[in-house]
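Lab notebook, bench 4. The sequencing result for the construct came back, and we need a structural model before the next group meeting so we can plan mutations. Quick request posted to the team channel:

Model the 3D structure of this chain.
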Amino acid sequence: MDRLYLPILYGTVREPRHSIGVARFALEVLRARPAVETRLFDPRDLRLGDLVTREWEMETRPPVLEEFVREMGRADGFVIVTPEYNHSYPGALKNMIDHLYDEWNRKPFALVTAGGVVGGARAAIALREVLVGVEAIAIPAQLSVPTVQETFDEDGPRTQREVWTRRLHRVFDELEWYARALRPARSPSGPGA
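Done. Here's the predicted structure in token form:
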């Protein structure tokens, strides 16, 4: 079976980054899946800055942006791991999404949110609207991590590691299904070509 490339996009640069442990744990769980290749993209490393010019409007792109565009273009789907800020998601994540467009089209996204009593559920609601705008698909399954600073540390769950692993696998099972179903439809010879 062909491997899927499903990168993880982390959503914040603001300290303290309580949800980075969720992103690292998601990376660990996704890497353990035999049919998947993955990588974590952190906006802190990308240093895209405020969006002034989108990548396709630039005369020359910085090397880090060149690589980001290439990696997102070859991806079969994505996992977003983000905290909730003020009933939405961080600006760093929106900036990361808005730098590109075609690379997101007709690809599935799994949402893993963190924060507060509802586990960042409002961030997921806001992200679903944005993903429609870039012609992407937010899969139905999602994972919300409540009170992340008590539930996770920077290396993963403080307790119930098996439970969190099962929860992530449920989301990743669905993401893989969507990624496999949509891959042939996006090919040059796919439906509507």
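The chain has one domain: 4-186.
Will bring this to the meeting.
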